[in-house]
Amino acid sequence: MTGKEEIPGVVVETEKSRDITISRVRIENEEGEKALGKPKGYYVTLEVPRLREKDPELTEEVSKKLAEELKVMINLPVDSIVLVIGLGNWNVTPDSLGPKVVEKLLVTKHLLEFMPEKFNTKKGIRPVCALAPGVLGITGIETGEIIKGVVERIKPDFVIVIDALAARSIERISTTIQISNSGIQPGSGVGNRRMGISRESIGVPVVAIGVPTVVDAATVASDALDMMISEFERQAKPGSEFYKMLKTLNIGEKYQLIREVLYPFVGELVVTPKEIDSLIENTSRTLSGGLNLALHPGISYEEVSTFLQ
Amino acid sequence: MTGKEEIPGVVVETEKSRDITISRVRIENEEGEKALGKPKGYYVTLEVPRLREKDPELTEEVSKKLAEELKVMINLPVDSIVLVIGLGNWNVTPDSLGPKVVEKLLVTKHLLEFMPEKFNTKKGIRPVCALAPGVLGITGIETGEIIKGVVERIKPDFVIVIDALAARSIERISTTIQISNSGIQPGSGVGNRRMGISRESIGVPVVAIGVPTVVDAATVASDALDMMISEFERQAKPGSEFYKMLKTLNIGEKYQLIREVLYPFVGELVVTPKEIDSLIENTSRTLSGGLNLALHPGISYEEVSTFLQ
Amino acid sequence: MTGKEEIPGVVVETEKSRDITISRVRIENEEGEKALGKPKGYYVTLEVPRLREKDPELTEEVSKKLAEELKVMINLPVDSIVLVIGLGNWNVTPDSLGPKVVEKLLVTKHLLEFMPEKFNTKKGIRPVCALAPGVLGITGIETGEIIKGVVERIKPDFVIVIDALAARSIERISTTIQISNSGIQPGSGVGNRRMGISRESIGVPVVAIGVPTVVDAATVASDALDMMISEFERQAKPGSEFYKMLKTLNIGEKYQLIREVLYPFVGELVVTPKEIDSLIENTSRTLSGGLNLALHPGISYEEVSTFLQ
Amino acid sequence: MTGKEEIPGVVVETEKSRDITISRVRIENEEGEKALGKPKGYYVTLEVPRLREKDPELTEEVSKKLAEELKVMINLPVDSIVLVIGLGNWNVTPDSLGPKVVEKLLVTKHLLEFMPEKFNTKKGIRPVCALAPGVLGITGIETGEIIKGVVERIKPDFVIVIDALAARSIERISTTIQISNSGIQPGSGVGNRRMGISRESIGVPVVAIGVPTVVDAATVASDALDMMISEFERQAKPGSEFYKMLKTLNIGEKYQLIREVLYPFVGELVVTPKEIDSLIENTSRTLSGGLNLALHPGISYEEVSTFLQ
């Protein structure tokens, strides 16, 4: 716990350990909304630069930290029903995070119904159900409509949505986990989902968990340019006309300029790390580990691991 | 067109070509229901013994015949919305037929909405949408509930359900396509689905398409025994005590006897041909070919094939 | 350790625990070869009826037992090179056992060469390499030729061959692990491999590990018939003409008879359990667990498990 | 046919159509080797900017053009044996091009041996065999050693090697096909293969076919910077200190600078387009189409397509 900044309408808290930095941001009113450009709500980010290394011990630590944060957000008795939605396209590797997480969940709603002596809330097992609804190009149906239909029918107490995100910076790819109770914003995912999913749109509290898995080529270039400018500044001749000009461009302008210049050559090139298959595998294991711990208080990490095999 | 049998309340019609036998059965009243042990409705079966050979020309022929039969069953203007549901578990090869068919469909509902100049009903393109809802063990939700929720939300005019079936005879595996407008019967699928899906349960007309992909070991044994008895009878000494006894057993008893005897050794062993991966691939291609032709009157087999690549 | 039978030229030993029966058969001379119809050599079979249940604790126990048996068979210093060959076709689920095992091996030969400070024989890490050569239909090359070429080039001290087998009885599917130092017999695998692989054919000691994953329909029928005959005998009228006749047929004849009768209806139908995807997954985990323990004496089951994730 | 440039020791020829630009470069002596920094040999590049659009007609056109170029390079009677090697790691999507091409080849060597009446050179069917040897991390064996072992054993007349490449420019990803008879250079592939594969190293003529599928983040940034400089130059004030400085950096220096600046933030980040799954699918189809046509003169594109289904 290292600090509490003071932006009006925003409460920020940061917690650092060797490998994980957790920041918790609460946007409390319209003033805060304007300052941060996001709707009111509670936002938690886990930054784990070494997550890309796929170290099993770190995976375990991150899963446990994630579970703690999720428990605070969800905060419901163990008998309330949770529906987990894995957004994204299972045929597009960097967009397959949501479906891959759902595949590794301890889905139990039917077990509590049909085998109540073995699976019940007294053993700390919650009724959890899950769905990977696919994407518009696969189903022809707006994903939000499928979710609404299922939510209306099975009436869960809580919905958790998992999505692969487009990063605004290359360093964030597969290294940050973003959680919020303000839902999924339209167009933030890898596949440019059109609809938002939030408490307002589906009538049930929603927590969204996202991990950036792609970045567009213009962002890569823009990030590199920024780093070069900083580097030049640090090294040398601060008066030169070169970064005088570049520094006068604000971030948005520079990014826009790069996009326009790149476009004729590569179009809307969105890229992902070469190792994306194993990154998705490891990230989905980390998220499902955290979800299984958070949702089923009676199940240990070891039991979850055995199950995941 | 070779015949019309006379069971009260049942109209039967058979059409044979070199490779395909089509039988069309209409059960018209309760008398017919009792006689055949199935609910009222229209049942079409395509028997294609050579379908297991994966001959591309035969695949084309069967797809076209299937399309003709489906057109009769569906019989709706080109602007009515069809929802195709691929039942089954994509992680269990012999149960993955439904999801595999859905993957190869020309899904168009969103295209007609967002690119109406290119995709429209005047070009013979129907609004088609599709869903592979998974199975109870994956979602924790009764599949019928997911379907009801989605149907209520998007209000299609017609629902087509695809499922892999348990065969009652080894010869039928991957060689027969069964279509009916009476819906899916509970427990008929590979995964023993609990709920039926029919016009009554979801409020929209339903056509079910099924292909047997598994058979239980007791059926294999029972079939073999029947064939041996016939063979013995054909060859020899009709008075022997041997088949006297066996012939006194009716089919149900014999099957039950074999099940009981086998059970302690192999449990409820359900088997599938060794080549099931390629059989499912070829069968799903055949079914999706037929569906694409039946649903989009403006699209040719060649266009569908190109798309399927 | 429960017994030692006396067939001339054959030494048999059996060890039973709750879930696992291990039989070790040593065929010592030509007399023994004739009696058992197999070449001279050491044959170990692990029978684990509950292996189909995919219980993680049992998987661990079987892996450890397998490792012990393999260590006796291989019996080489830790610096000798072992090449593991995963036979079979990765596109045919029941034939994909070998490639799946290879995928889960701790392959280390290159690590000992390039990172000797971290990976070395003093830490109990052996130089292991592996290959899944594919099958004739995929490569156009006799698999034995690929293996010979690679063996001649890299000169391993020992070769281990993994293969999916055709069972001679339905109960054995995915419940028995067969190990021998007499190599792979031609035609015993799921894909009817033409060539044998043995010390004689490739010039290096060979241990073969096989697990039955398929059975032909005639075997299913024949097994069922045998069980019915035993059942009838047990229950009743031992003098009847029925099993008098059936009992006069020896096993080979009966099987042949059933094959001939079935053939016109189903051809050479070879079947596999419906759950074959998860059976192959679990069996490959069990075998690779055992191999990793046997080959690398310095690595524990827990480390192997973590790696397998 | 549009030109013939004059670099000593180098013959260049360019052919343009609407969608495809083919350049053929022959490096004839040491002078040419020095000028182009590549070994003597014949290099053909197909540039197809629209290849990323996955248009089936363009796929067909490119396959046919590729076949023509390959026929010139291979130029062997139909009865000579060709071995096709698909390099790369099938578990890493952008590195799986080689194995995916091999999967779609008409492999025939065994058919000519076992069914000579149906498959023979008089029908224009060549004996083709194929192998996907995996990568060092999977096998523990240098891939070149596996290839040498197999080549020595089966003695093909010609070897074709397929590999996914690291691009030196983002525009080239999945849009250019590079062919040469000088073999594969070490370290040019996605997975940084250590060994080269060439006529010298394996004793048989080699043609290498490569398609760029990845690019490193520094290249993306460097390309973007170059484009921005050109754009600034084109638009404005050519005297400014800004591009004076940047223009004084040569390409190598600039790239090196960016790498150094980026490294602390993202390491050796190598990226691939988000759509890599479908790009690999389409590219492998294009290459295997070209190979099948080039190798089997008696088989038409339509027959190949039917087979590829």
From TrEMBL, chains A, B, C, D:
Enzyme Commission code: 3.4.24.78
Give this protein's Gene Ontology molecular function annotations: metalloendopeptidase activity
* Catalytic activity entry: Endopeptidase action with P4 Glu or Asp, P1 preferably Glu > Asp, P1' hydrophobic and P2' Ala
Q: What does the UniProt record tell us about how this protein is modified after translation?
A: Autoproteolytically processed. The inactive tetrameric zymogen termed p46 autoprocesses to a smaller form termed p41, which is active only during spore germination.
Keyword field contains S-adenosyl-L-methionine: no
Q: What are the protein's UniProt keywords?
A: Hydrolase, Protease, Zymogen
- Is Protease found in the keyword set? yes
Per the record, the domain of life is Bacteria
Q: Which residues form the propeptide?
A: 1
| One record GO biological process | spore germination
Known Gene3D superfamilies for this protein?
Answer: HybD-like
**InterPro entries to which the protein is assigned, alphabetical:** Pept_HybD-like_dom_sf (IPR023430), Peptidase_A25 (IPR005080)
Family that this chain belongs to: Belongs to the peptidase A25 family.
Q: How does it assemble?
A: Homotetramer.
Function, please? Initiates the rapid degradation of small, acid-soluble proteins during spore germination.
Q: What is the name of this protein? A: Germination protease
Upper lineage:
Bacteria, Bacillati, Bacillota, Clostridia, Thermosediminibacterales
